[in-house]
Design a protein that fits this description.
Keywords: Isoprene biosynthesis, Nucleotidyltransferase, Transferase. Catalyzes the formation of 4-diphosphocytidyl-2-C-methyl-D-erythritol from CTP and 2-C-methyl-D-erythritol 4-phosphate (MEP). It catalyses: 2-C-methyl-D-erythritol 4-phosphate + CTP + H(+) = 4-CDP-2-C-methyl-D-erythritol + diphosphate. This protein is of the alpha/beta class. The chain has a single domain, classed as Alpha-Beta Complex (Spore Coat Polysaccharide Biosynthesis Protein SpsA, Chain A). The strands form 3 sheets. Strands 5-4-1-6-10-7-11 form a 7-stranded mixed beta sheet, with helices on both faces. The longest helix has 14 residues. It starts with a strand and ends with a helix.
């Protein structure tokens, strides 16, 4: 079994949630979103360490129920997601596998994590969880729509897994060149890397809006 480090960027605010605290600290069944996410990785035998990138002013992260877990470390992240992930990568050494996962994606299953960990990767490749598009996809441009072949459309999720050195170089290059990247896979693609898609589940969604939080609470209630 591959042993993998995990980086969770959690230095952002999540303005679309319009909440009093960052969305990773909202509660689901009296447990924060971040702690639900941490539990997935801290309990998995393939995970060596979990590094959480937080803002310098964050006073809530160290109230985590897992704050003393031997696998867990916190570090100060940057202004942008890529800056935070890059800081986490810089704190590691060697060229082992590393995953990046959204703090507000707490419904990842161990089965999906197993599938991603088992994906063989060359040095310049990545593997990500993703969901094939099931609805008709239309592009809106200048007031006109165009239907796109959905058989070629996949919706990217996290975790996303790479060798540490390749992802470090890809993110550094993207930041230096001012490229707009939305996730780690997009930086890897700019470096010519191939990305393997591992089919995911709609349940592994990211909590972004209040309606997402309602759905996540309902799903966790069904589990308990």
């Amino acid at each position: 079994m591959n042993l993998v480090d995990v980086i969770i960027p959690a230095a952002g605010v999540g303005s679309r949630m319009n909440a009093e605290v960052a969305k990773q600290y909202l509660s689901i069944n009296s447990v924060t979103v971040l702690d639900h996410t941490l539990n997935i990785f801290l309990e998995h035998p393939a995970i060596k360490r979990v590094l959480v990138g937080i803002s310098a002013k964050d006073e809530l992260a160290r109230k985590s129920r897992y704050v003393n877990h031997p696998k867990l470390q916190f570090f100060v992240g940057g202004n942008e997601r890529a800056d935070t992930v890059l800081a986490g990568l810089a704190s590691l050494s060697g060229d082992d596998l590393v995953m990046v996962h959204d703090a507000a994606r707490p419904l990842l299953s161990s089965v999906l994590l197993d599938s991603l960990v088992a994906t063989p990767l060359a040095k310049n490749e990545g593997a990500i969880l993703a969901l094939p598009a099931r609805d008709t996809v239309r592009k809106l441009e200048a007031g006109r729509t165009q239907t796109i072949d959905r058989s070629q459309i996949w919706l990217a999720q996290t975790p996303q897994m790479f060798h540490r050195g390749f992802l470090y170089n890809a993110l550094s290059s993207a930041i230096d060149s001012g490229e707009a990247i939305t996730d780690e896979a997009s930086a890897a693609e700019l470096m010519g890397g191939a990305i393997h898609m591992v089919e995911s589940s709609p349940i592994n969604f990211k909590i972004t809006t209040p309606s997402d939080l309602v759905m996540a609470r309902a799903l966790f209630s069904q589990r308990s």
